[in-house]
Amino acid sequence: MDEVSLAVENLKKEWDETVSQLQETIRAIENCGKSGKGTEEANALPRLNGAAQDGLSSLRSMQFRLGLLAQQLPTMEEVQSGQALVEIWKEQYQKLHMGLRNANFQAKANIKKAAQEERELLLGGGEESTVRRRNLQTKVGMTSAAESITESLRRSRQMMVQEVERSASTLMTVGMFINLPVVLCCL
After folding, report:
1. pLDDT tens-digit profile of 114-169?
2. Domains of the chain
3. Which of 80, 95, 114, 143 lies at a CB distance of 3.0 to 4.6 Å from 38, suitable for a disulfide?
């Protein structure tokens, strides 16, 4: 087997691995929001989409490389086979791209549904609602305390800056009085 044929075989293996990983990522995106943790899973969606986009970019690059390698294959039969494979890969890429798009639509619908259920639980009665509200209030309380501390630090910093400016002004004034007699004596 010559170098070009070997490179094509390695590229086929790499393609299959990348397609497999991308299909897993698409399934994960599609299932986003189904477990009932809407807001938590919504935060994972951008990371999953980034991984999927990386996979699609890799596939696009592999298509291009196969197109170049196919033209360099030793026999005309292999060249035609390589070009046919490029077309198959293009179709597979398009299907994966559409699958990713549909998975994102499904994920957004799942997350929206989970958020609605979460909202209903918070507003509804019962023990679970009380626990959720308490947890939410704890988070709100912690956020409020953090904001209060930040504001207090901001005020302290402002007071310190004012004090430094006042001290600098006082030093300049004192410095002028000290240098004044020296200036008058020299005249």
Report:
1. 878 777 776 766 666 566 666 666 766 677 666 767 777 777 888 888 888 888 77
2. 3-123 (1.20.120)
3. 114
